[in-house]
Amino acid sequence: MPLTDLIDQAVDAVGLGAELPCRVNDPELWFAERPEDVEFAKALCAACPLQQACLDGAKDRREPWGVWGGQLFQQGVVIPRKRPRGRPRKHPVAA
């Protein structure tokens, strides 16, 4: 699905009174650096009426990065979670 079709669907949904999370929250949240912010954006997508159309379109377009349809994309592929910046720890942290 082309991005223009998704935009048209979003305009129609807003016209019918739907609140789209990506329209009423800070758009930068869907392209955040911090893993906690990315998880929050994914959670906001759960109640979106266009979630499946957004996800399908992002897969078709192989979106390079960001949260689309409640899933995180990196280099055109859905990944489970965003790793924090920096090097991973050499030893696990004692709890």
TrEMBL record:
Transmembrane segments: none annotated. One of its GO terms (biological process) is cell redox homeostasis. Its cofactor is [4Fe-4S] cluster. Keywords: 4Fe-4S, Cytoplasm, Disulfide bond, DNA-binding, Iron, Iron-sulfur, Metal-binding, Transcription, Transcription regulation. GO terms for cellular component: cytoplasm. The keyword DNA damage does not apply. Belongs to the WhiB family. This is Transcriptional regulator WhiB. It comes from Barrientosiimonas humi.
